[in-house]
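User: Predict Biogenesis of lysosome- organelles complex 1 subunit 2's structure from this.
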Amino acid sequence: MSGSQEDASAAAPDGQAQEGAPAAVDAASQRAFDSMAQYLQAELESSASDLGLLEALNDASIEKYEGMSRQAQDMLAHAYKIKQTHNEMKAHIAEVDSLVESIDGLEQVAQELDRYSLQLENKFRQLRDDAFASPPPPPSLGRPARAGSG
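Assistant:
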Protein backbone atom coordinates (compact mmCIF):
# COMPACT_ATOMS: atom_id res chain seq x y z
CA MET A 1 0.00 0.00 0.00
CA SER A 2 1.08 3.34 -0.78
CA GLY A 3 0.94 6.33 1.49
CA SER A 4 -1.97 7.70 -0.40
CA GLN A 5 -3.91 4.52 0.11
CA GLU A 6 -3.42 4.70 3.86
CA ASP A 7 -4.61 8.26 3.84
CA ALA A 8 -7.60 7.25 1.81
CA SER A 9 -8.42 4.37 4.10
CA ALA A 10 -8.06 6.59 7.15
CA ALA A 11 -10.32 9.13 5.58
CA ALA A 12 -12.79 6.54 4.37
CA PRO A 13 -15.78 5.99 6.61
CA ASP A 14 -15.54 2.22 6.35
CA GLY A 15 -11.81 2.06 6.95
CA GLN A 16 -10.11 0.05 9.63
CA ALA A 17 -8.65 3.08 11.32
CA GLN A 18 -12.19 4.22 11.95
CA GLU A 19 -13.15 0.84 13.44
CA GLY A 20 -10.89 1.32 16.48
CA ALA A 21 -12.59 4.58 17.41
CA PRO A 22 -16.15 3.23 17.50
CA ALA A 23 -15.02 0.34 19.69
CA ALA A 24 -13.61 2.81 22.20
CA VAL A 25 -16.75 4.90 21.97
CA ASP A 26 -18.85 1.78 22.39
CA ALA A 27 -16.83 0.73 25.45
CA ALA A 28 -17.06 4.22 26.95
CA SER A 29 -20.77 4.34 26.18
CA GLN A 30 -21.24 0.92 27.75
CA ARG A 31 -19.36 2.05 30.88
CA ALA A 32 -21.48 5.23 30.98
CA PHE A 33 -24.69 3.23 30.59
CA ASP A 34 -23.52 0.73 33.24
CA SER A 35 -22.63 3.58 35.61
CA MET A 36 -25.95 5.27 34.92
CA ALA A 37 -27.76 1.96 35.51
CA GLN A 38 -25.89 1.48 38.80
CA TYR A 39 -26.70 5.05 39.83
CA LEU A 40 -30.38 4.64 38.94
CA GLN A 41 -30.45 1.26 40.71
CA ALA A 42 -28.94 2.87 43.84
CA GLU A 43 -31.47 5.72 43.64
CA LEU A 44 -34.33 3.24 43.30
CA GLU A 45 -33.02 1.21 46.24
CA SER A 46 -32.64 4.39 48.30
CA SER A 47 -36.17 5.47 47.39
CA ALA A 48 -37.47 1.99 48.20
CA SER A 49 -35.64 2.13 51.54
CA ASP A 50 -37.13 5.56 52.25
CA LEU A 51 -40.58 4.29 51.34
CA GLY A 52 -40.07 1.27 53.61
CA LEU A 53 -39.07 3.57 56.46
CA LEU A 54 -42.08 5.82 55.82
CA GLU A 55 -44.33 2.76 55.76
CA ALA A 56 -42.88 1.58 59.09
CA LEU A 57 -43.36 5.06 60.59
CA ASN A 58 -46.89 5.17 59.22
CA ASP A 59 -47.67 1.75 60.71
CA ALA A 60 -46.21 2.83 64.06
CA SER A 61 -48.29 6.02 63.95
CA ILE A 62 -51.41 4.04 63.12
CA GLU A 63 -50.80 1.72 66.08
CA LYS A 64 -50.15 4.67 68.39
CA TYR A 65 -53.28 6.53 67.31
CA GLU A 66 -55.37 3.36 67.50
CA GLY A 67 -54.15 2.92 71.08
CA MET A 68 -54.96 6.53 71.86
CA SER A 69 -58.37 6.10 70.24
CA ARG A 70 -59.07 3.05 72.41
CA GLN A 71 -57.99 4.97 75.50
CA ALA A 72 -60.22 7.90 74.55
CA GLN A 73 -63.16 5.55 73.99
CA ASP A 74 -62.51 3.88 77.35
CA MET A 75 -62.35 7.29 79.02
CA LEU A 76 -65.64 8.29 77.39
CA ALA A 77 -67.26 5.07 78.60
CA HIS A 78 -65.98 5.68 82.14
CA ALA A 79 -67.12 9.30 82.03
CA TYR A 80 -70.58 8.13 80.93
CA LYS A 81 -70.70 5.62 83.80
CA ILE A 82 -69.60 8.30 86.27
CA LYS A 83 -72.28 10.66 84.96
CA GLN A 84 -74.93 7.94 85.28
CA THR A 85 -73.81 7.17 88.83
CA HIS A 86 -73.88 10.88 89.68
CA ASN A 87 -77.40 11.21 88.26
CA GLU A 88 -78.53 8.16 90.23
CA MET A 89 -77.04 9.58 93.41
CA LYS A 90 -78.44 13.10 93.05
CA ALA A 91 -81.51 12.20 95.12
CA HIS A 92 -79.32 10.60 97.79
CA ILE A 93 -77.01 13.61 97.77
CA ALA A 94 -80.03 15.86 98.29
CA GLU A 95 -81.12 13.67 101.21
CA VAL A 96 -77.64 13.83 102.72
CA ASP A 97 -77.62 17.62 102.32
CA SER A 98 -81.01 17.78 104.03
CA LEU A 99 -79.74 15.56 106.86
CA VAL A 100 -76.66 17.76 107.24
CA GLU A 101 -78.89 20.81 107.55
CA SER A 102 -81.06 19.00 110.13
CA ILE A 103 -77.99 17.92 112.08
CA ASP A 104 -76.68 21.48 112.03
CA GLY A 105 -80.04 22.64 113.40
CA LEU A 106 -79.96 19.93 116.08
CA GLU A 107 -76.44 20.98 117.05
CA GLN A 108 -77.65 24.55 117.50
CA VAL A 109 -80.57 23.35 119.63
CA ALA A 110 -78.19 21.19 121.69
CA GLN A 111 -75.89 24.16 122.23
CA GLU A 112 -78.85 26.30 123.32
CA LEU A 113 -79.98 23.53 125.69
CA ASP A 114 -76.45 23.34 127.11
CA ARG A 115 -76.42 27.07 127.70
CA TYR A 116 -79.89 26.96 129.28
CA SER A 117 -78.98 23.98 131.51
CA LEU A 118 -75.83 25.81 132.63
CA GLN A 119 -77.96 28.84 133.49
CA LEU A 120 -80.38 26.64 135.46
CA GLU A 121 -77.51 24.89 137.21
CA ASN A 122 -75.93 28.20 138.16
CA LYS A 123 -79.30 29.50 139.38
CA PHE A 124 -79.87 26.31 141.41
CA ARG A 125 -76.41 26.60 142.99
CA GLN A 126 -77.06 30.24 143.79
CA LEU A 127 -80.38 29.39 145.45
CA ARG A 128 -78.82 26.50 147.37
CA ASP A 129 -75.89 28.59 148.49
CA ASP A 130 -78.26 31.39 149.56
CA ALA A 131 -80.45 28.93 151.50
CA PHE A 132 -77.55 27.39 153.40
CA ALA A 133 -75.67 30.62 153.86
CA SER A 134 -78.49 32.44 155.68
CA PRO A 135 -78.66 31.85 159.44
CA PRO A 136 -81.37 29.52 160.65
CA PRO A 137 -84.34 31.11 162.35
CA PRO A 138 -83.90 31.54 166.12
CA PRO A 139 -85.41 28.75 168.19
CA SER A 140 -88.52 29.73 170.09
CA LEU A 141 -88.14 29.94 173.86
CA GLY A 142 -91.46 28.72 174.75
CA ARG A 143 -93.44 25.94 173.58
CA PRO A 144 -95.71 26.73 170.82
CA ALA A 145 -99.21 27.14 171.92
CA ARG A 146 -101.50 24.44 170.90
CA ALA A 147 -104.66 25.29 169.38
CA GLY A 148 -107.63 24.05 171.25
CA SER A 149 -105.89 23.57 174.57
CA GLY A 150 -106.54 26.10 176.97
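DSSP finds two helices and no strands in the chain.
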